[in-house]
DNA sequence: TCCCCATAAATGTCAGACAATTAAATCGTG
DNA sequence: CACGATTTAATTGTCTGACATTTATGGGGA
């Protein structure tokens, strides 16, 4: 039996803990293990895979970091297949998105266009399924945004909440999840932008029109207004950028 | 000094490895550590945090599982802040999406509507930025899909490739990343659907019209056709479902 | 019957050691 | 002096064994 040994090409010769984690991950994603199933204890796993307990623990920690399992101490404790909740999935997505944008030098325009493209995609569904609660939430955020002397951070937060309410109007949690990740991941880039008062007024005006259009279930108009909002935001970013460039060049000379 | 102990509410009293991982994660996401920065060695970290090396290692494995760091052995080795590549980010997103859909009993209709909503969102950008390469790729997939006797898996794979080319036409990697995750996460649900020949013909016909519309840069038409495709897919899923229900009830009696 | 406590099972943590890998320093030789 | 082989040191990967901590369970006593 010559092929009993590990195939040197396929398994990629990674760490033992990575291999074990992959094996368990596959079992979960393929459905062999379903939510709330209990994995064997660390001692049993170390025996099964022929490795020490620390190695097994490293594998389990890898899975825990991906929210694939959760662990409980004590008798009748152990590692259990975790039913990923939406808030957790949101956190995972936000982390990945933030990392992807910030460490890959994705420019603001690309991220911004992607975000508005996704949001425009769910506008028709929002127009169809929106509830009075969503409209009320959006109007509340508009009131907040209109207050003078609001910090840039607070304005951004309110902006995010407004768009979140708009997306939630689609009543599609999967859609909300994607959009939340897209928006959250942009937050670091977004915080580099400063909104002048005139720009804020323009944005708030568009928000009001969007809310009205949503109330009227006018999907085409929402689409158009979101496009306008995207344009405004991009212009804003350019202005901030040129301002910084100017300042930097001035300081350098 | 009574408050020297861990604050019982704020730090949430998690595992030491989770706390350390969180601290390093924050340092990376906040920008204190940038790509390719080298972390202190495991021995130094264990000394810094006052824990043992296995505990530090568990923390590092958590971060590695999120592709936040990568490790290298040997002298001048260690843990380095990892620049997340798009393929890796794609894998992360796909894992989370698959988990979210399969372990949370998200019904096919919800996932399908979300996917097409996102795809319709990038249709205008694709119409604007599409290249001849994208059109060629889509036409190649259409040819593949039209072959009779194709297995359901192969048909699905070609379908995915077709839509991927459509999305890539937007020339926005962030957008492509989101869509790829949405589609990949649906794969397990998608594989439960069987496409009859008549349905396949209908889908391929729509694909042809979509490609033509993309060539003509007619965003509105693409939007309309994607809507139709969504409707067809949903009808398909319902048919498969009722078929299964029928079979199951028959077997049960 | 009800409460308290011992017990057992499991994860969490530690200490020390050795193996494997890799880059750099060292040495030897032409 | 130059260049290649060898040694060395630093670092991660893995193992062993032990102890601490948490928690469900069951038994004993009031």
TrEMBL record, chains A, B:
<dbReference type="InterPro" id="IPR008920">
    <property type="entry name" value="TF_FadR/GntR_C"/>
</dbReference>
<keyword id="KW-0238">DNA-binding</keyword>
<keyword id="KW-0804">Transcription</keyword>
<keyword id="KW-0805">Transcription regulation</keyword>
<dbReference type="GO" id="GO:0003677">
    <property type="term" value="F:DNA binding"/>
</dbReference>
<protein>
    <submittedName>
        <fullName>GntR family transcriptional regulator</fullName>
    </submittedName>
</protein>
<dbReference type="Pfam" id="PF07729">
    <property type="entry name" value="FCD"/>
</dbReference>
<dbReference type="InterPro" id="IPR000524">
    <property type="entry name" value="Tscrpt_reg_HTH_GntR"/>
</dbReference>
<dbReference type="InterPro" id="IPR011711">
    <property type="entry name" value="GntR_C"/>
</dbReference>
<feature type="domain" description="HTH gntR-type">
    <location>
        <begin position="14"/>
        <end position="84"/>
    </location>
</feature>
<dbReference type="InterPro" id="IPR036388">
    <property type="entry name" value="WH-like_DNA-bd_sf"/>
</dbReference>
<dbReference type="GO" id="GO:0003700">
    <property type="term" value="F:DNA-binding transcription factor activity"/>
</dbReference>
<dbReference type="Pfam" id="PF00392">
    <property type="entry name" value="GntR"/>
</dbReference>
<dbReference type="InterPro" id="IPR036390">
    <property type="entry name" value="WH_DNA-bd_sf"/>
</dbReference>
């Amino acid at each position: 039996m010559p092929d009993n040994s590990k195939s040197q090409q396929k398994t990629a010769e990674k760490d033992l803990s990575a291999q074990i984690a992959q094996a368990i991950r596959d079992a979960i994603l393929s459905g062999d293990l379903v939510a709330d199933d209990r994995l064997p204890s660390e001692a049993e796993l170390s025996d099964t895979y022929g490795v020490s307990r620390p190695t097994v623990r490293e594998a389990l920690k890898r899975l825990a970091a991906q929210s694939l399992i959760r662990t409980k101490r004590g008798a009748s404790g152990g590692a259990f297949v975790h039913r990923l909740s939406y808030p957790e999935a949101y956190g995972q997505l936000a982390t990945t998105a933030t990392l992807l944008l910030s460490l890959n030098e994705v420019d603001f325009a690309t991220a911004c266009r992607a975000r508005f493209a996704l949001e425009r995609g769910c506008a028709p569904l929002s127009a169809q399924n929106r509830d009075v609660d969503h409209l009320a939430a959006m109007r509340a955020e508009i009131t907040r945004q209109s207050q003078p002397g609001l910090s840039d951070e607070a304005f951004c937060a309110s902006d995010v909440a407004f768009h979140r309410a708009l997306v939630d109007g689609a009543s599609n949690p999967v859609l909300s999840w994607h959009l939340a990740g897209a928006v959250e991941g942009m937050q670091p880039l977004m915080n580099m932008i400063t909104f002048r008062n005139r720009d804020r007024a323009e944005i708030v005006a568009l928000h009001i029109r969007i809310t009205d259009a949503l109330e009227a279930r006018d999907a085409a108009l929402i689409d158009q207004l979101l496009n306008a909002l995207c344009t405004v935001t991009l212009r804003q970013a350019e202005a901030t950028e040129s301002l910084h460039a100017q300042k930097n060049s001035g300081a350098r000379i």
